[in-house]
Amino acid sequence: MKMKQVMALAATLTMAFSITACGSSNKTAEEPAPTDTKTETPAPAADNKDAAATTEGLKPEDGAQLVVWESKDERAFTDEIAKQFTAKYNIPVKIEEVSPTDQVTKLSQDGPSGLAADVVIFPHDNLGRAVEAGLLLANDTFKDETIKNNTEASIQGVTFDGTLYGYPRAAETYALYYNKSILKEAPKSFDDVIAFGKTFTDNAKKKYAIMWETGNMYFNYPFIATTGGYIFGKNGTDKDDIGINSPGALESLKVYQQLKSILPVKSGDINPDIKRSLFNSGDVAMDINGPWELGGYKKALGDNLGIAPIPSIGGKPAISFSGIKAWYVNSFTKYPNAAQLFAEFASTKDAQLLLNEKVGSIPTNKEALESDQIKSDPYVSAFAEQAKNSQPMPSIPEMGNVWSPVNAALPEIWDNNVDPKTAMDKAAQQIKDLNNGATK
Prior knowledge:
- The protein has 440 residues and is α+β, with helices and mostly antiparallel strands.
- 40% of the residues lie in helices and 16% in strands.
- It folds into 2 domains: 13-173 and 322-392, Periplasmic binding protein-like II (D-Maltodextrin-Binding Protein, domain 2), CATH 3.40.190; 176-314, 3-Layer(aba) Sandwich (D-Maltodextrin-Binding Protein, domain 2), CATH 3.40.190.10.
- The chain contains 21 helices and 15 strands.
- Belongs to the bacterial solute-binding protein 1 family.
- It holds the Pfam family SBP_bac_8.
């Protein structure tokens, strides 16, 4: 879902959860590539008139059938929620695996031709681009209910230019996973991480103190923002104020460069599958990752799994990216009523608790956040702590111009020892050119 200036986020648990937030998923590179995997939840044989009863005065279209896009990582949840929806409304649902970070682009290509999903999900930083392209229906029928039930920050994340579009379902940020059989407690600073790495890392044996996606801006935002860097000024709304090459950003990037000494691996050789395997086997002691990995890591490590805030940088709490994941209704859908009903149904308190159960996500629903399931969970609580120091990614369309330049600059710094200022000056100029419509 999320991201700039060092704006203080509310310290309450509820607000902390709500601000988190990409994907993942977001998630940016952590999501798998789109696949053609599909399953369909057939409608019950019986014609259940009561099941198709109206909700908030909204009646599904006769013969409605839906296609929903979902990530591979969170597929278990959507398979289950689709079955529940079909049982209630007698509407079959087909699920197709598409990475959330690819969905707006795919929707822009396939939506007008009627080939896209009826309901999609993506991090909130893509919202402005989707709205300006006319790809989404506003969340008007369930607007009051959505606003009442979800945290303020999550509502802000799925609102663009004063209009509510999304149906929030999860807040995401990332934190530090660590193996308690190797480390009794998590390091407090990256200086501590480096000190430990000098005793643990053994490149020949493929053993590393810490691993994260070093070429992915989403996970490396702490090395831009913690000491004063940012993406865009004015809380992410000023496209002309680019802060990735500011003095504050360059100070944090010095720490980023220093970590290469204990992680001598090319950025292109670190991906979610490799990192997951090494962490599960105990060959990586720490991993910077999001809640989408929680279920698998708990299964692999059991009581040896720990989660803590990201280590400090320059004596300051690390600032992570956050994002809101939400359902959206395709403006080109043939079944807008049925699609809205699904988006609402799949984002309720019960749905968000099911999502938490299946993949360890952080709810945005206020009642869900107060449930015993969430409050008694030490892992979710750890993500909440990190969330207090997270910043939401900007949702202006120009955010789409940031990823490629920065994701090219980071490997230059990491792999080729290019001076951070040189690499980030180049990236900032590329972003500026893209923002201003330059063709070269």
